[in-house]
Design goal:
Blueprint: H1 2-20, H2 24-47, E1 57-60, E2 62-66, E3 69-72, E4 75-79, E5 82-83, E6 91-92, E7 98-99, H3 101-113, E8 118-121, E9 130-137, E10 140-141, H4 142-148, E11 153-154, H5 163-171, H6 184-191, H7 195-202
Parallel strand pairs: 4-9
Antiparallel strand pairs: 1-8, 2-3, 3-4, 5-11, 6-7, 8-9, 9-10
Amino acid sequence: MSIIVGVLLACAAGLAGTLLCPSPEKRREGQHLALAGAALLGSALFAFPLSARAGETLIGPATIIDGGNLVIADRHVRLYGVSAPDLDQTCWDARERAYPCGRAAAKALTQRIGEAPVTCELPDAPSNITLTALCRVAGEDLGAWLVGQGYAMAERQDPHPYAEIAARAWGRRLGMWAGVFQDPDAWRQSHGSGLAAQLATRS
């Protein structure tokens, strides 16, 4: 903030020099100062981009990090209401065979989105690193879709908007529910922060 304040003061000084000083030399000095201040202001705004605010909407193509995290408009977005396995989490199917359920969830989300633009609404106050958002493709809630297909669990909260969807996925033994798996949040606690969190801290 101090940089931006200083730049604004420089711009004000340059403008004052341009308007109030009658001599050509002073006028040129003021013009040069105003131009320099404007250039610095543009650099400051580029170096310190404004953070997304609650209630805003991000729209654009998405890059998938894992089943619960993606990047849209150069921002890391965590899907609201879901707990999906990390990329390197392993689960077991109905025949007790190990399979990479984290990669399966990421692949399913990638295929569901395809080349379509993703729209993410920011209901909560965002942090500087990760945004939690309700994201849709062609009007369909991606979090609800993941839970409904058994690729993610509904986060523990009561009441939960995906509770009935999760119950149906469990009853039909879809996705992870077809076999045995560890709760993704418990898995992250026992295996570290996870790939998505590591990527977030580097951004």
